[in-house]
Amino acid sequence: MRQDIRFLLNGKPQQVSHMSADMTFLSWLREQPHLRGTKQGCGEGDCGACTVAMGRLDDSGQLVWRPVNTCILFLPMVDGSAIRTVEGLVSADGNLHPVQRAMVTADASQCGFCTPGFVMTLYTAWQNRQGLQQDEINDTLAGNLCRCTGYKSIVNAALTLSSSDSHTSSVGYSDSKDASALAELCATDDFDKDFCITSDDNSFYAPSEPTTFANFYADNPESVIVAGATDVGLWVTKQHKALGQILWTGRVSEFARLDIAGDQLFVGPAITHQQFAESISNKFPELTELMRRFAAPQVRSSGTVCGNIANASPIGDLPPVLIALGSKVELTRREVVRQLDLEKFFIAYGQTDLADGEFVSGVFVPVDTASYLRCYKISKRFDQDISAVMFAANLDIVDGVITRPRLVFGGMAGTPKRAAAAESVLLRSTLDIETFQAAAAALVDDFKPLSDMRGSAAYRMATAQNLLVKYGLELSEGKTVRLAGAGLATVMERL
Asked: Sign of dihedral through CA atoms 117, 72, 229, 63?
């Protein structure tokens, strides 16, 4: 078993051992190689000052780059990747990278604290040649905050990078050379084996086989399973919690399964939100649009679908939609695998149907049940905000009569929950607005929402009722009205 981690840092191979198992990658970057361009800002994956580019090899041997927040990324999780920081962009003769030159030319910096994070986010977009068009750039930069510039100059810098000319100048290093070096590093005899990092009071175990993972967790159910650490990372940075035994999903290749099985999409436990969003773009346009508001690119590049479900948050945006689609969750304990309707997985606040030593090993999402799917997220900000109310609605219409209504709310109860009373009003009713108004009135029998900083109980109830009526109006009128995305065209038509 390996007792070290291996990765590329700005093109140079690294082999690291003797570390705390829960050390963040940001701490290591600043304390060991002293690469301090990567900054500590919020410490919770919101501001983007700590952003670096992480590249992993795809099936063709090419590097695919993603922006990641290093403040909540545990150091062992960079194993097998290529990392580029802001210090690694300047060529040996001191010439700036095209992204850096664009920022300078556009005067896109004032105090400069956040600038390296912006540069590295733009760098990943530049490398992937996507996300730099006028209608894309705000989404690309959603995970980077600036208190000085007002963003206009940064957006202007980004737009200059969308031209092919930006790829013609020398950048001082070769991406293909990095890919070859990473492939060579990953081809060593012991690289594919499990690795375990052990310190005085914690350990980080990364099995490479699904049976090893399942058996270890069954024997050690007190272990903390980590996928992307977008939530668990905050336990360390904000709560200063000692995690003890960490068990990582990221080395099990079978956990990266994402494919169609019959009439269902199977999503494995290592599939990130970004990978999921890309895979559903042609199947679920409503959900795809919602995923734009699901955290930010840095979080979507690390956090996983199964992790979001296992977290069992009542305000998670994804579970209501998956329940509305009729999804099932796959649960594994050793060799025993069972499936459960996702809506039955959530029992009470923070409680799930998981037994000791059992983990979420996948999600089955039906692919042909979304004809009338709509997703509505209400929050104080458009980007990077937690929902006050999340509403996902789906139904079938047969001969003008509503069948199989599924109305699912987040933020209204201790779990993501279907509105049974409202559904009963819609079932076997005709598609008219009076029916939806009656269903909205029935929501008071389904929910007794709490009041908190995001909204009072009265606000949540009124919002939920209005969203249900809105759903009825959109279905009856045949138009989806949104302030962003595909539905924006309808808004513009009415202006």
From this structure: positive
Kindly state whether residue 282 falls inside one of the protein's structural domains: no
Which DSSP category does 377 fall into? E
Residue 123 in tokens: 């760098």
Given a contact cutoff of 8 angstroms between Cβ atoms, the answer to whether 443 and 468 are in contact is yes
Domain boundary, last residue among 225, 248, 271:
248
Q: Cβ(15)–Cβ(67) under 8 Å? A: no
Provide the terminal-to-terminal Cα distance of the chain, rounded to the nearest Å: 64
Neighbours of 200 (CB within 10 A): 7
Q: Which CATH number characterizes residue 143's domain?
A: 1.10.150.120
Name the residue type at position 191: F
179 and 62 both lie in a single domain: yes
Determine, yes or no, domain membership for 125: yes
DSSP 3-state of 24 = strand
Q: 75 lies in which domain range?
A: 5-87+175-248
Highest mean predicted confidence (pLDDT) among 162-176, 277-291, 478-492: 277-291
Distance CA 161, CA 367 (A): 37
Overall average pLDDT of the 289-295 stretch: 89
Beta-ladder partners of 396: 403
Q: Give the single-character DSSP code of 198.
A: E
The total domain count for the chain is 3
Question: Taking residues 380-395, what's their average pLDDT?
Answer: 93
Structural domain ending residue among the three candidates 125, 149, 167: 167
Contact (Cβ atoms closer than 8 angstroms) between residue 448 and residue 457: yes
Residues 58-90 pLDDT 10s = 989 999 999 999 999 999 999 999 999 999 998
Confidence of residue 486 (pLDDT cuts 50, 70, 90): low
Task: Determine, yes or no, domain membership for 356.
Answer: no
- For residue 225, what are its two tokens? 């399973």
Distance CA 139, CA 152 (A): 14
Are 385 and 240 members of one domain?
no
Write the CB contacts of 40 (distance below 8 Å, at least 6 apart in sequence): 26, 30, 49, 50, 71
Residue 480 lies in a domain: yes
Q: What is the torsional sign of CA 267, 411, 475, 470?
A: negative
Instruction: Please tell me whether residue 285 adopts helix, strand or coil conformation.
Output: helix
pLDDT, residue 166, reads 66
Strand extents, DSSP E, 371-465: 374-378, 389-398, 401-410, 417-418
Question: What pLDDT, on a 0 to 100 scale, did the predictor assign at position 165?
Answer: 65
Confirm if 136 and 126 have CB atoms less than 8 A apart.
no
Residues 219 and 185 in one domain: yes
